[in-house]
C-alpha cells in the first residue's frame, strides 16, 4: 500500500518532471517481457533402488508487505525504522513456510538480508525469484520476491504499462517503481509432477482507475502463464478494500469477477474468514487490522483425480516486535494459509500442524 513516489523525491522528482507524462493511455501490452524459463517438467531417472520421497501432505503459504524501502526514501517515508533488524526478524518469522511472497522488498541490501537469513534458518532450503526489475523511467524495481522450499520450474515477470505519474500525483505517485507481477511455477511433488502456479502483484496505491487497468494487465499475465492442470494462487497487496459482495459495483466486486473469469474453477478468497488475528491487513497496530487489502486467492484444477489445495485455516499475523520503535515488523499484517494436498477421490481431514507465531 506504500506510496512509492514520496520515497524518491530527492533524486527522482526532477528527472521525471521532464520526462514523465500524465497517466498513460489505457493500454494492455504483451504479458511476456523479462522472461526466464526452464522446462515445465523435470525429467529425472529414478531407479528402482532409489527410495521415493514421501509425498508432501500440506502446503503453507504466506504473503507479506514488508515495507523495506530504499535508503533514499527514508527521510520522506521511513514509517518503519530499524530496517536491518526487521529484515532479519521477518526472515526468522517466515522461515517455516513452504512458499513466501513478499511486497515492497525494494532495498537491495535488506532484500538480500531476508534471503540470507532465510537460507541460514533452513540450511539453504529456499529457491528464489524476484522482479520485475528497474526499467524505462522507473527508478527502482517492483519490490516483489518469492522464496520456495520446492524447486522453481519457471519464472516470468511483467511491468505494468499503466501507473500514476509525477505530473498527476506528484511525489506520491507509484510510477517511480516498476510495479508489476511475478509468476513462479514450483514443483511440489516430483513423482506425480504436481506443480503450483504462484502469481504475485502489488497494485497502485493512489488511483482506482489505474488499479483497474493494472488488474486487466495482471489477469492477462495470469491467463498467459497459468497451466489449467495446476492449482494456482494469487498473492499480494492489491490496494483494494474487501467489501461484502451484494451486487454493488465495487472495486472488490470487480476484482472477484475479473479473477473468476481466469479459470473453470473460481478463485477462493482464502482469508475472507481468518482463524487467527484481526480481520484487516493494512495496519498491524490497529485492533481490527485496518482495511483488508492484502490477499491470498487459490483455485484448483478441474482435471479428474487432480490433487487439490484444500484450505485448513487462514491467518492474519501482526508480527509485533517491541524492539522496533513503531511496534511491528511492517505496517501491514502478513496473510498466511495452510493447505492440505488432497486427491479428488480422497477423504479430507483438515488438521493443522501450525503453532501460534512467536
From TrEMBL:
Presence of the UniProt keyword Signal in the record: yes
Domain of life of the organism encoding this protein: Bacteria
CDD domains associated with the record: nSMase
Domain Endonuclease/exonuclease/phosphatase: 63-332
A GO CC term attached to the entry: extracellular region
PANTHER family reported in the protein's UniProt record: SPHINGOMYELINASE C 1, SPHINGOMYELINASE FAMILY MEMBER
Keywords linked to the UniProt accession: Hydrolase, Signal
InterPro entries, sorted: Endo/exonu/phosph_ase_sf (IPR036691), Endo/exonuclease/phosphatase (IPR005135), Sph/SMPD2-like (IPR038772), Sphingomyelinase/PLipase_C (IPR017766)
Coiled coil: none
Matching Gene3D superfamilies: Endonuclease/exonuclease/phosphatase (3.60.10.10)
Molecular function terms from GO: sphingomyelin phosphodiesterase activity
Name the record gives this protein: Endonuclease/exonuclease/phosphatase domain-containing protein
Originating organism: Blastopirellula marina
Transmembrane helix in keyword set: no
Amino acid at each position: 500500500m506504500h506510496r512509492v513516489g514520496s520515497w524518491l523525491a530527492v533524486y527522482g522528482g526532477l528527472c521525471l518532471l521532464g520526462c514523465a507524462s500524465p497517466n498513460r493511455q489505457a493500454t494492455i501490452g504483451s504479458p511476456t517481457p523479462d522472461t526466464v524459463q526452464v522446462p515445465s517438467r523435470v525429467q529425472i531417472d529414478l531407479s528402482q533402488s532409489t527410495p521415493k520421497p514421501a509425498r508432501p501432505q500440506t502446503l503453507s503459504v504466506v504473503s507479506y508487505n514488508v515495507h523495506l524501502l530504499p535508503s533514499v526514501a527514508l527521510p520522506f517515508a521511513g514509517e518503519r525504522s530499524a530496517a536491518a533488524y526487521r529484515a532479519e526478524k521477518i526472515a526468522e518469522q517466515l522461515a517455516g513456510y513452504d512458499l513466501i511472497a513478499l511486497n515492497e522488498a525494494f532495498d537491495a541490501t535488506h532484500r538480500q538480508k531476508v534471503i540470507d537469513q532465510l537460507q541460514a534458518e533452513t540450511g539453504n532450503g529456499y529457491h528464489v525469484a524476484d522482479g520485475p526489475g528497474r526499467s524505462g523511467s522507473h527508478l527502482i524495481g517492483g519490490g516483489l520476491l518469492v522464496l520456495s522450499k520446492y524447486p522453481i520450474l519457471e519464472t516470468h515477470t511483467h511491468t505494468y504499462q499503466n501507473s500514476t505519474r509525477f505530473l498527476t500525483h506528484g511525489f506520491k505517485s507509484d510510477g517511480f517503481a516498476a510495479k508489476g507481477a511475478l509468476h513462479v511455477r514450483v514443483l511440489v511433488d516430483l513423482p506425480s509432477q504436481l506443480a503450483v502456479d504462484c502469481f504475485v502483484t502489488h497494485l497502485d496505491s493512489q488511483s482506482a482507475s489505474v488499479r483497474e487497468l493494472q488488474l486487466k494487465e495482471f489477469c492477462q499475465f495470469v491467463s498467459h502463464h497459468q497451466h489449467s492442470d495446476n492449482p494456482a494462487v494469487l498473492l499480494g497487496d492489491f490496494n483494494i478494500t474487501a467489501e461484502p459482495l451484494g451486487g454493488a459495483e465495487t472495486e472488490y466486486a470487480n476484482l472477484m469477477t475479473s479473477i473468476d473469469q481466469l479459470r473453470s474453477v473460481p478463485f477462493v478468497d482464502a482469508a475472507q474468514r481468518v482463524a487467527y488475528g484481526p480481520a484487516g491487513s493494512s495496519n498491524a497496530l490497529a485492533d481490527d487490522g485496518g482495511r483488508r487489502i492484502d490477499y491470498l486467492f487459490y483455485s484448483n484444477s478441474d482435471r479428474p483425480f487432480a490433487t487439490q489445495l484444500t484450505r485448513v485455516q487462514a491467518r492474519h499475523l501482526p508480527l509485533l516486535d517491541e524492539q522496533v520503535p513503531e511496534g511491528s515488523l511492517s505496517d501491514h499484517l502478513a496473510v498466511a494459509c495452510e493447505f492440505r494436498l488432497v486427491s479428488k477421490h480422497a477423504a479430507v481431514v483438515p488438521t493443522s500442524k501450525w503453532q501460534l507465531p512467536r
